[in-house]
Amino acid sequence: MKFPYDIHFQPPFPVLPIRLSNEQRGNPTETLMALVDTGADGSLVPLSILRQIRAPAVMDKRLRSHWGEWRAVQMFVVDVELVNRKLPSVLVVGDELGEEVVIGRNLLNRLRLLLDGPAQLTELQ
Question: pTM of the prediction?
């Protein structure tokens, strides 16, 4: 399946449709467009979304941002659905500052993707 890049970013950003849930509580999100960030070690989800689905916090960590500063974060467990692929019990960082879901390498390494920059398409194989 192919998905167009989000042209609201400059340059356009690869995105994938994603649904998040907490299987124990049965509260799935609506379909969200998540940014595909091949340079991010882990995935980020806004705290507001994690609270909405009542995702359980499992640990506190220290994270170094792309700017190099360290900050304390909470890690949560969520179930991820990407175009009919279910990935249970994925560890994500609760993001208190951002508003976008970011898919990092902890999820990308479980998928077969083609980022076609010239065509501005993300293909999930």
Answer: 0.89
